[in-house]
Amino acid sequence: MTLSTTAVTWQYDSTPVVRNVSINIVPGRVTVLLGPNGAGKSTLLRLLAGDLLPYSGEVTINGSVLQEITLQAQAQLRSVMMQSVHVVFDFFVEDILEMGWVYAASRAWGRPDDALKRAALESVMIECNIADFKGRKFNALSGGEQQRVQFARALLQLWRPENNTQPCYLLLDEPTSSLDLAHSIDVLNLARKAAKKGAGVFIIVHDVNLAARFADEIILLEAGRVVSKGTVEHVLTSETLSRVYNTPISVEYHPALERLVVFN
Amino acid sequence: MLSVVIALATGAVSISFLAMLNGSAISELEWRVLSDIRSPRIVLAVFVGAALGIAGAALQGLFRNPLADPGLVGVSSGAALGAIAMIVVGGNIVTSVWLLPYLLPLAAISGAAIVTLLLYFFANRYGNFSVVTMLLIGIAINAMSIVGIGAFEYLSDDTQLRTLVFWMMGSFGKATWPTVIPILALISAAIVALLYQVRKLDLLQLGEQQAQYLGVDVKQLKRCIILSTAVAIGASVALSGIINFVGLIVPHIVRLLGGVNHRLVLPGSMLLGATLMVIADLVSRIIIVPAELPVGLVTSALGAPFFLWLITRVRPQ
Q1: B134, B200, B210, B218: which to substitute to probe chain A, counting the most A Cβ within 10 Å?
Q2: What is the CB neighbour count within 10 angstroms for residue A148?
Q3: Reported ipTM
Q4: Sheet order of strands, A78-81 included
Q5: How confident is the model over A39-77, as pLDDT tens digits?
Q6: Does B196 touch chain A (CB under 8 A)?
Q7: Are B105 and B179 in contact, with CB atoms under 8 Å apart?
Q8: Which residues pair with B27 in a beta bridge?
Q9: Considering the entire predicted model, what is its pTM?
Q10: If DSSP codes are grouped into helix, strand and coil, which group holds residue B38?
Q11: Which of B128, B198, B204, B214 is the best mutation test for A, with the most CBs of A within 10 A?
């Protein structure tokens, strides 16, 4: 039971963007995707999300080919947080959050799971520390605050009753791009927590140190190809990073932090 | 809030009835006026108002653009072009009086659908186009329709021309039961179809990709909204001509009153659109008694200043 790509290729016009990529996102683990700008990270995420269809190879989720299951079913198996969301109309923060509620069939009016929904909404707001935003307009929030709301929405989308043990996946495209360090760590801790509860978490980040701190597994992408994948210690070496980012990078073990730190 | 709007809607209708009833006791003639002239007219105003209100709200949601209005972006004039082509050309070919009430809306709906598709093509081609681009495209489409309409006016004979000119300004004066009934059926169907899309329209506000991640079949949603709004607008235009600004003002007022969720904006715009239209029609009938003003002039007189105010508020991103 994984979210996997098998020899997936995708091209824009005739330029290959993702080349022959085979990766597994395993439930209960945090997989971090690293790579320089233009390496095809977001494209790979969109392929995993089913928004782009592979030119060759296939994407499978819990054993079924992704595009063979309905969009509704996909929405209940994986949630996606995009880099930025621009909303025109003046929605309240709660409205935006509520859009992540896909549990049970979405009907226009009078849903029977209203009480359940409200409880889930409350708890996700508290968990993500955004309860203060209640009653505020989404567009009145700062970029970082909006990002935290979008993250909470993505978490809410994966809400399911206790007895549902089918693995689900959380795909995050640079969830910390507008966040200060403290909030970045908060969000990534919450992502870890989701993984502990059984979700397969897939995160694109740029900060190699954040990757070193939060990843169970790192995938390093360069020009659409996977150049290295595995544990933090395996992927994050001075030699590999210096070559891929084309700049001298040092990686050292920090004895007090008990993890690798990266600097240049 | 909804109930207030409903009350207002029924209020407007009963006012017009009261005015009738106070004037004189119900004679045979009065009864005929009420049942054969007044009633179909008011019923048509209610449905056209509802159709324009909800279609405006749905188009604004679909294009994620608060200035989308069936009139401004050219959907109404596309429908008008279709209908005029049918009146001028089709009128000479189709002689059956019974067929025309059905062919006219069909032609108008086709015109509206073509324009909406065209708009969507542009929107897809150039990403999410801005408020300004949308209005410029509307100007271009309106200009093209005016060329077509002008050509058909040139081709038409004198009686046809009189009909066309009055009809272009929008009026409910031509309402009779046999012509109104097919329109009502079409508008009702479109409204029901649109009301089923409220949740999906909300999700679409996060962007097409994100909506898809949340389980919305975006292509199907677009098809449904384009078709339904085309039917609603086409059917309205076919009988009552171009009535501008209702689809623009009404959703804005509803949003100001009750928030931006489409679950509220769509039915709210439908009810408020109906209310506004009945009142506008009432005004158009009594303001220069015994003659009457085209109702399109009344809504434009109200809507144009509102539109200016709106432009100053909605800054292009």
Answers
A1: B210
A2: 24
A3: 0.91
A4: A78-81, A169-173, A200-204, A30-34, A217-222, A225-230
A5: 999 999 999 999 999 999 999 999 999 999 999 999 999
A6: yes
A7: no
A8: none
A9: 0.87
A10: helix
A11: B214
